[in-house]
Amino acid sequence: MSHQTKTHGGSMDSFKWAVVVALIASGVIGNHHFSDQSVLIRLLVLLFVVAATCFVALRTSKGQKFWQFALEARAELRKVVWPNRQETIQTTLMVLAIVSIVGFLLWGIDALLLKLIALLTGYGAH
């Protein structure tokens, strides 16, 4: 299913993760520092910082493993057979009916236990 990804070495990955942290910090600090600027301009700059951060993060060994996992998950998701409208409605109605039945049963048991405790303790009995 999955193939092995090449690892580039710990020191280079550590440097890349440091760059990722620096980019995130610069985005947060920059957004706060330039709070008097237009929201649109800050949004565009933040989108650029997020894109650069993702680009660098995906160049690490963990980032490559994550990307491979995402691709495999997408391929598996395409294999899922989704229910049609009628099956969805029937299943939803069955769930609602069972939940209602269980709710009424629990309510009845609770009321019965409350009466039993009231009889045994004399508290709440009239």
From TrEMBL:
<feature type="transmembrane region" description="Helical">
    <location>
        <begin position="15"/>
        <end position="34"/>
    </location>
</feature>
<comment type="similarity">
    <text>Belongs to the SecE/SEC61-gamma family.</text>
</comment>
<keyword id="KW-0813">Transport</keyword>
<protein>
    <recommendedName>
        <fullName>Protein translocase subunit SecE</fullName>
    </recommendedName>
</protein>
<comment type="subunit">
    <text>Component of the Sec protein translocase complex. Heterotrimer consisting of SecY, SecE and SecG subunits. The heterotrimers can form oligomers, although 1 heterotrimer is thought to be able to translocate proteins. Interacts with the ribosome. Interacts with SecDF, and other proteins may be involved. Interacts with SecA.</text>
</comment>
<keyword id="KW-0811">Translocation</keyword>
<dbReference type="GO" id="GO:0008320">
    <property type="term" value="F:protein transmembrane transporter activity"/>
</dbReference>
<comment type="function">
    <text>Essential subunit of the Sec protein translocation channel SecYEG. Clamps together the 2 halves of SecY. May contact the channel plug during translocation.</text>
</comment>
<dbReference type="Pfam" id="PF00584">
    <property type="entry name" value="SecE"/>
</dbReference>
<dbReference type="InterPro" id="IPR001901">
    <property type="entry name" value="Translocase_SecE/Sec61-g"/>
</dbReference>
<keyword id="KW-0653">Protein transport</keyword>
<dbReference type="GO" id="GO:0065002">
    <property type="term" value="P:intracellular protein transmembrane transport"/>
</dbReference>
<dbReference type="InterPro" id="IPR005807">
    <property type="entry name" value="SecE_bac"/>
</dbReference>
<feature type="transmembrane region" description="Helical">
    <location>
        <begin position="93"/>
        <end position="120"/>
    </location>
</feature>
<keyword id="KW-0812">Transmembrane</keyword>
<dbReference type="InterPro" id="IPR038379">
    <property type="entry name" value="SecE_sf"/>
</dbReference>
<keyword id="KW-1003">Cell membrane</keyword>
<dbReference type="GO" id="GO:0006605">
    <property type="term" value="P:protein targeting"/>
</dbReference>
<dbReference type="GO" id="GO:0009306">
    <property type="term" value="P:protein secretion"/>
</dbReference>
<dbReference type="GO" id="GO:0043952">
    <property type="term" value="P:protein transport by the Sec complex"/>
</dbReference>
<keyword id="KW-1133">Transmembrane helix</keyword>
<keyword id="KW-0472">Membrane</keyword>
<dbReference type="GO" id="GO:0005886">
    <property type="term" value="C:plasma membrane"/>
</dbReference>
<feature type="transmembrane region" description="Helical">
    <location>
        <begin position="40"/>
        <end position="58"/>
    </location>
</feature>
